[in-house]
Request: fold
Amino acid sequence: MFRFAREQSVINVGGVKMGGQPGELPTVLCGTIFYHGHKIVRDEEKGLFDAARAEGLVLRQAELAEETGNPAVLHLFARTGQAFLRYLDFVEKVWNGPLIVDSSDALTRSSMARTATEIGYADRTIYNSISVALTSGEREALQDSDVDSAILLAYNPADGGVDGRIRLLEEGGAGLERGLLPLARDLGMTNLLLDPGVAPLGSGAGSALRFSVVAKARFGLPVGSGMHNAASSWGWLKGRGAAKKCCDAAASALQQLAAGDFVLYGPIENAETVFPVTAMADMMVAEAVRDLEVFPQPGHPIYRLA
Amino acid sequence: MSPGEIFLAREEQVCSRAFPDGWPVVRGDYVVYNPQGHVAVTTLASHIQVQGAAIFGPCKTENLGVEKVVANMISNSNLRYLVVCGAESKGHLPGETFLALNKNGIDDQGRIVGSPGAIPFIQNLTGEAVLRFMRQVEVVDRIGLEDESEINALVLELDRSARAFPEEPFEVVKRKVRPSELRLENGDVCLGCGVRLDASLWTVDREGDHMASNREGA
Reply:
């Protein structure tokens, strides 16, 4: 393990800190709920779901966070603005930590930024994401909103390597006239989280790992990813339930070892396996950098579980 | 042999070598029925069992998903139709992207011209591959259609009227990723004990080592 020569910034969203040198802060774990195909959702358009099961999942993630010391973030996916409003009603009752708001639909993402502002959730909301797919409607919504935390998706479809991703952040490309970093700052984002965008295995998943180290070294910003995508899109794992869970959790640990500060670990059901693996990896990293004068912060898994 | 018989014999010959061994060349979530058939079907975000197609399967993304379908189609000259049916994948819009790609192609950055999808780029295929797709394949727009019997009837009708594309299968080669610039003079991540990592290379070196190697290089 290593220490970055450049100072590493720490951001605070809704009381959860992330960033710093590897081994300093526990890895933040973001479990996704109401994702496309989530069995607890009955109607993705309207946002109808099994509230009892959803509550169980959110509370279990929170319990594991408390037990291990790895802070949790609720990654809320919604297909429509209408569904998002229903999900927020539910969230208000069961979760008071940070939220990542996410949709594959740009109009829905815009409405998420507006709604988060209207109901006073902006300071605990992380917008997912600012990317080459950002529409003018989203720019307007972000500019008008109080949301100031965002994931910058560095996926560069015109140049898929590490260099292309870094260029996208700094200068733009793939149709984007400016770099994602200056663009996000102009839109009022002050808490910037970098995500390389993880392609499937065989299409460049591994480059996301090297990106993570390079990006922290160059920008000093928190970095993380949905590395589990590499496992979940791996056809060979189809029908191998236990192996799939192992690979999902191992993918998260790989991101940690590549200096990841946060992990979008996928379906919130996977909390059961991801939290222990992440806590173990955090403890190992903390021990590895102890003589580099990096010290784990209070609440780190090493003080709770070792 | 009459001219007509010669023509038929040539056509049969073309059909018999219209797809390479090991086709489909790109792995994915699909079912292959008959590599000598003329119709491929993408069911977009829907999971539909299609009868009679050469190959069928879902496609949910407007970039990697689309280019996998293109790669598997142009590497089999038998395939002349791509039926795009099923529910569109929200935000990504791969169905609309197939239509745009077939009609307009890509620009010099790989962007699919006219696609309303979120990140509609061809990343791993060459411009020649896209041009071949445009010449070889006709995209049949049935976005939203989920009725199995209607899809099956359409496949049968198209298959009956089609012939193999009169050129060899296109050899799909992945576009090379531009190599990183190699620099060893500066480390930017410290590992202690004078050992450092150049993060752009993931290269660990000890002070002095790289200078020695530079000298050797000179």
Q: What stands out?
A: The radius of gyration of chain A is 18 Å. The interface with chain B takes residues 1-6, 79, 103-106, 131-133, 155, 157-164, 173-175, 199-200, 202-204, 210, 213-214, 216-218, 235, 291-292 of chain A (CB under 8 Å). The first helix of chain A runs from residue 51 to 68. The first strand of chain A starts at residue 3 and ends at 4.
